[in-house]
Write a structure and sequence with these properties.
Largest sheet: 20 strands, mixed
Shape: globular
Number of strands: 20
Structural class: alpha+beta
């Protein structure tokens, strides 16, 4: 595992475990308030397979990795999420990345560039993986707000109640397969003349959160149609929305939403298909989501995203099949979760599979977990990396954000040069710490080097850190 691979591991940990939605996606729902307290996460790895290494080379890698761990901090306050990930060698920090996400903007700071901050917006085409010299699609969790289904349903209910002048309510019997029998159909038709300012009006009907922020910045055009199919008890079993909307008048999309659902005290079931082709030109962002959640017991989730941008196609699928059962030691989480993506303009599929055996302990106000998770990376159908991660999570102190004098706005134009500079500095700092580890555990780096040259590298690293 070269140094760049370790940096990639640091990045993957930040994206997977530092995501504000990671708990909702990977852990069956509990009564614990994961977003109410800041959390500290520690990770260490033991590698079974790393192609093309043989058994001897893999053993050298594990001798190095036993000194290396990752420590992450994550916290959320309202619409703002902060995270930090450190790569440690024998407990000493070799590198750190801090991330602050606020609405539409992301800001990153790196320990190797202590006077600088880097900012970009969602529309900029910039991603953290690219800023670290990697693939923007690799192993990132789709941005699924865990509160989105409940907030969206609350919005649709409020629209029906607050816009009676646009509402048609008729008896209509229909079997919504797997969800229930509808007896009423409500159709809300908002005319084109009311499209201007509709985003602000809809936002006022929505609970505070990511959906409300999105609505406030969305532009609408033309007629908007919302349809709700209801059961005898008033439950909504199907939702459809059609209309034109987008981030700006120049980026309008033909929005088509079909949502089949069954929400009860015992079970939550959702099947969502969202299609958003551009009104003018080519391009689309499509989403399919299927979820079955038994609170506190079971989660079955599939999220598929497909993007066509600039003539390049890419796709990503996140899946989770996880169970939670009570034991004497706490609640045990077992199952499998995976992230699969296709490289743009290629049929090659990459896949990351996690198989956790994790114990949840602590309390609702102070959640904690510990255990192991198997990790397998596939290229096509072939496993190229296999490892076991030790993981622990516990409450921590609040992160502090440092105001730095040099703030760089990252764009697609300056991204390549910045990525080269940042990864270069990270590599130097990580290697300096590694070469000072016990000599018998650094053979993964030093094997094949002249002893005189290796001693020069060690002395140079020691001098730089003094």
């Amino acid at each position: 595992m070269p140094v760049r691979k370790l940096i990639s591991l640091l990045l993957a940990a930040l994206m997977l475990f530092g995501s504000a939605s990671a708990e909702a996606l990977f852990i069956p729902e509990t009564e614990w308030q994961w977003d109410a307290v800041p959390l500290e996460i520690t990770l260490s790895a033991d590698v079974q397979t790393h192609m093309p290494f043989d058994e001897n080379r893999t053993a050298q890698l594990n001798n190095l990795l036993k000194h290396i761990s990752l420590r992450l901090y994550i916290q959320q306050s309202g619409d703002e999420a902060w995270s930090s990930v450190e790569l440690l060698t024998d407990g000493a920090q070799a590198a750190e990345i801090r991330l602050r996400q606020t609405g539409n903007e992301t800001e990153a700071q790196f320990s190797v560039m202590r006077d600088s901050s880097f900012r970009w917006t969602k529309e900029s085409g910039v991603s953290l993986p690219e800023l670290l010299g990697g693939d923007k699609t690799a192993y990132t969790v789709p941005e699924i707000d865990p509160d989105l289904p409940a907030d969206a349903l609350a919005l649709f209910e409020s629209m029906v109640q607050s816009m009676p002048e646009y509402l048609t309510d008729k008896a209509h019997e229909a079997n919504i397969s797997g969800m229930g029998k509808a007896v009423r159909k409500q159709t809300l038709t908002i005319p084109s003349a009311q499209a201007d300012g509709l985003g602000v009006r809809l936002a006022s009907l929505c609970p505070k959160g990511r959906l409300r922020s999105l609505l406030e910045s969305t532009v609408y055009a033309g007629k908007q149609t919302l349809m709700l199919w209801r059961g005898a008890d008033g439950s909504v079993y199907r939702v459809e929305w059609t209309g034109q909307a987008g981030a700006s008048a120049d980026d309008l999309r033909k929005v088509s939403l079909v949502w089949r659902l069954r929400h009860t005290d015992r079970e939550l079931v959702d099947e969502i298909t969202l299609k958003t082709p551009k009104v003018k030109g080519s391009g689309r962002n499509n989403l399919q989501l299927e979820r079955r959640l038994i609170p506190g017991e079971y989660l079955l989730l599939t999220v598929k995203t497909g993007v066509l941008s600039g003539g390049e196609k890419s796709s990503q699928t996140l899946s989770a099949d996880l169970k939670r059962r009570m034991t004497d030691g706490g609640a045990l989480i077992e199952g499998e979760a995976s992230i699969e993506y296709t490289v743009p303009d290629s049929d090659m599929e990459q896949k990351l599979v996690l198989r956790p055996e994790i114990m949840l302990t602590g309390s609702a106000e102070a959640p904690a977990l510990s255990g192991k998770t198997g990790v397998t990376v596939y290229s096509g159908k072939n496993p190229v990396e296999q490892a076991e991660l030790d993981i622990s999570v516990r409450p921590s102190g609040w992160l502090l954000w440092e105001l730095r004098p040099d703030v760089t706005q990252v764009t697609e134009d300056n991204l390549p040069a910045l990525a080269q500079t940042i990864t270069g500095h990270l590599t130097v700092d990580v290697v300096r710490r590694m070469v000072l580890l016990p000599q018998e555990d650094t053979l993964f780096i030093s094997d094949g080097l002249d002893p005189v040259v290796w001693n020069q590298i060690v002395e140079a690293a020691r001098s730089a850190l003094q």
